Amino acid sequence: QVHLAESGGGLVQAGDSLRLSCAASERNSRTHIMGWLRQAPGKEREFVASINPSGSDPNYAGSIWGRFIISRDDAKNMIYLQMNDLKPEDTAVYYCAADFSADGFGSWGQGTQVTVAS
């Protein structure tokens, strides 16, 4: 199982940008689909973005399409989420995710809080 550690969250103003980072503990993460999930207060955890092992053809949730960019640096076992033009509705705990299957992502880290003030 891949162990994941997120960082980079914080309190920002609407319209600002943040870059989240995820350190994956296993080199096998290079051959796996990786992604980001988020959970807002009082809501279920939801898909944000995913990226395949080659780094091509990323997938995004419609709510963040055009504003967020997922990337990976397999040499460093890192996954990133560049978040631009943040909105108050992006406020959530963001989780790096792994162990992708037909049922979605099966594991995630402890999360990093992102708060966007209006």
* Measured distance between first and last alpha carbons: 38 Å
Tally of contiguous helical segments: 0
User: Average pLDDT across residues?
Assistant: 93
Give the % helix.
under 10%
Approximately what portion of the residues adopt beta-strand conformation?
Answer: over 45%
Determine the structural class based on helices, strands and strand pairing.
mainly beta
Q: What series of H and E elements makes up the topology?
A: EEEEEEEEEEE
Rg estimate, integer Å: 13 Å
Number of extended strands: 11
Largest sheet properties: 7 strands, mixed
Shape from CA axes? Answer: globular
Summarize the structure.
The chain is an all-beta fold and 118 residues long. It contains no helices and 11 strands.
Describe the protein.
The structure is a single chain. Strands 2, 4, 5, 6, 9, 10 and 11 form a seven-stranded mixed beta sheet that branches. This protein has a four-stranded antiparallel beta sheet with strand order 1-3-8-7, with no helix packed on it. The radius of gyration is 13 Å and the shape is globular. The protein has strands at 4-7, 10-13, 18-24, 34-39, 46-51, 59-60, 68-73, 78-83, 92-101, 104-108, 112-117. Helix content is 0%, strand content 53%. The mean pLDDT is 93. The termini are far apart. 32% of the residues are buried. It is built from no helices and eleven strands. It is an all-beta fold and 118 residues long.
